[in-house]
Specification:
Order of helices and strands: HHHHEHEHEHEEHEHEEEHE
Strand order of the largest sheet: 5-10-9-6-8-7
Radius of gyration: 30 Å
Number of helices: 10
Strand content: 5-15%
Largest sheet: 6 strands, parallel
Helix content: 25-40%
């Protein structure tokens, strides 16, 4: 970003503005004015023989980058209507901390849900700007599906926060006994089954899905079909003649066709999953969206 010509021009302009508005430059101007006034009191032949105050050096510092980048973020939001990505907000907060230090009156407690999606550096920054904060982090590293993001080990990666206490919830209250035991065996988990009895996890050929969906009534139960983003297009083409499908959103009276990422935090009575191309974490996340019945789709 620093090598971008347009950005460098904007950064220099911001740095000049910060320089001329800075306290150190204002003090220099006061001294310069005093020096000039004193010299004018001397006789003409004795003026300007002594060296006047030296102007402070110009440097592009973190505060200039912060102000310039912040201006860019505001322009993105207000004027260009572009997305503001998470890394831009992280950069803004990081530069803010570099320039101005931690909060004088920060948060005493931070409660973070889906904590596995927050990276180590993000936790470290939150801790630096809130040096006395107490973290309460809730999450499941087995549901981390963002490549190159987040954390996959609570104890190893969160040690940057100092001494931490880790508590594991080993009871499954959401899924039926059959679904929980299926996931236990498949993923080598040992979660206790505290749900109700249901039907066994079943397998259905993808070619049969259209016929099955046409026999279902989405007004009486919540139904979802989950796949990877790539296979989501396959499902859309396969089921394009069914009118009561809702793609990428939840609507009453509709069967939801969703990617794995779109199902986070959601639950359905019946879930159909096309696991082709899914990682173990994506499969686990998809399978546990089903409260009562889980059906796996296959191309065979």
């Amino acid at each position: 970003i620093i090598n971008n010509t347009e950005y460098k021009g904007r950064l220099k302009k911001q740095a000049d503005k910060n320089y001329y508005e800075s306290d150190v430059y204002k003090r220099y101007k006061i001294k310069e004015q005093q020096y000039n006034e004193n010299e004018m009191l001397k006789s003409p032949e004795k003026r300007w023989r002594t060296k006047g105050p030296t102007p402070p050096k110009k440097h592009i510092v973190a505060a200039d980058i912060y102000d310039c980048e912040f201006d860019g973020i505001i322009n993105n939001i207000c004027f260009e209507n572009k997305k503001v990505y998470k890394f831009e907000l992280y950069l803004q907060l990081l530069l803010n901390f570099m320039c101005y230090g931690n909060f004088t009156a920060g948060d005493s407690h931070l409660f973070i849900d889906e904590g596995q999606n927050i990276s180590v550096n993000e936790y470290l920054l939150l801790n630096n700007i809130n040096p006395n904060v107490v973290f309460n982090i809730f999450g499941d590293v087995n549901q981390l599906i963002l490549k190159g993001r987040g954390i996959n080990s609570w104890d190893k990666q969160l040690s940057v926060l100092g001494n931490i206490n880790i508590y594991f919830l080993k009871e499954n209250y959401r899924n039926t006994i059959e679904i929980n035991e299926y996931c236990n065996e498949l993923f080598s988990f040992d979660n206790a089954s505290l749900g109700l009895d249901g039907v066994a996890v079943s397998n259905v050929k993808l070619s049969e899905l259209t016929h099955i969906i046409k026999q279902m009534d989405p007004s009486s139960q919540r139904i979802a079909i989950i796949s990877t983003r790539e296979n989501n297009f396959v499902l859309k083409n396969l089921l394009n003649d069914i009118s009561y499908l809702s793609h990428s959103k939840i609507e009453d009276g509709f069967i939801s066709v969703l990617t794995v990422a779109e199902t986070k935090g959601l639950e359905f009575d019946i879930v159909y999953v096309l696991p082709d191309g899914m990682s173990d974490n994506e499969k686990y996340l998809s399978y546990t969206r089903a409260l009562s019945q889980l059906v796996l789709l296959s191309n065979e």
